[in-house]
Design goal:
Largest sheet: 7 strands, mixed
Shape: elongated
Helix content: 40-55%
Distance between the termini: 87 Å
Oligomer: single chain
Radius of gyration: 26 Å
Order of helices and strands: HEHEHEHEEHEHEHEHEHEHEEEEE
Amino acid sequence: MLALVLLLLSVFTAGCGSSAINNQNADVENEVTKDLITVGFSQLGAESDWRSTNTESMLEAFSQENGYNLIYKNGQQKQSNQITAIRMFIQQEVNYIVLAPAMETGWDSVLGEAKEAGIPVIIVDRRVDVADKNLYSCWVGSDFELEGKKVAAWLKAFTEKRGISADDIHIVNIQGTIGSTAQIGRSRGLANAARANGWDILDEVSGDFTETKGREVMASFLRKYDNVNVVYCENDNEAIGAIEAIENAGKKVGADITNGEIMVVSFDGVNQEAINYAKEGKIACIAECNPHHGPRVSSLIKTLNSGGIPDKFNYVSEKLYSSFDDISEIVVDGSTYTIDELE
């Protein structure tokens, strides 16, 4: 009987010891988390190499070692998923919300809820179109229309240098996700240049920023038109798909567009395969779209956290790449941009 009592007593005390240790560990963890800035990050998805690199930059910047407690949600290209994530962040009482929006419209209600809860929102990459601009604290990203203007200016300078008439330029545009800031800006940059220069835009169809859709859209263009000689791809993944479709059709990708070759131009400069294609001349020109926003967003949060007011719109600097040495610089809106030659 005594042995049984001692056995039960030892089990009981061991259990109490384990519980005490667990409670101590929880207290330590809560103490550490209490000193961190909690950030809820809603990423729109993983549709491209640019997006994956952007996510990596954010995850690295918002580590515990850097003073953050990050709650990350992948929206899987659905705005509804992102709205759900933001509402979850509000319930969790995060300190800041970072949003990389799938599209520009449809955010007024949920951002209003965040503002009512007193949680500052930072918009990353694509913009939001809301009636009250005070629903978010600031934005950081690229000037997508300027990117489009740069590529168009390069195309104009290159074709003029080669003596190619504007009447001989026949363009198809594989657009990005319709309604996204990148698509709107890059499409507008091309459209305005085409009107100004007398270029022929044969067609525009979305490739959703993906290689698969880019290949499908390009194959459709080639069946529909027999005079395509410039393909304006609104990101590198689409360009890779377009090049495959062109070559599968028995045509040649290159810059000699008056002799049957099809020129491809693109955006991002992140995918290594696209960079290699640019070095070979299969992609004639790439406008960089810088994905490394993590440190920039962290800097904005530190400014807000210290009571400062950051600039509302924060643009990143970006380059223009080409393996053709015909053009060393271009001028857009009075500013000169040098071409980084890929070798």
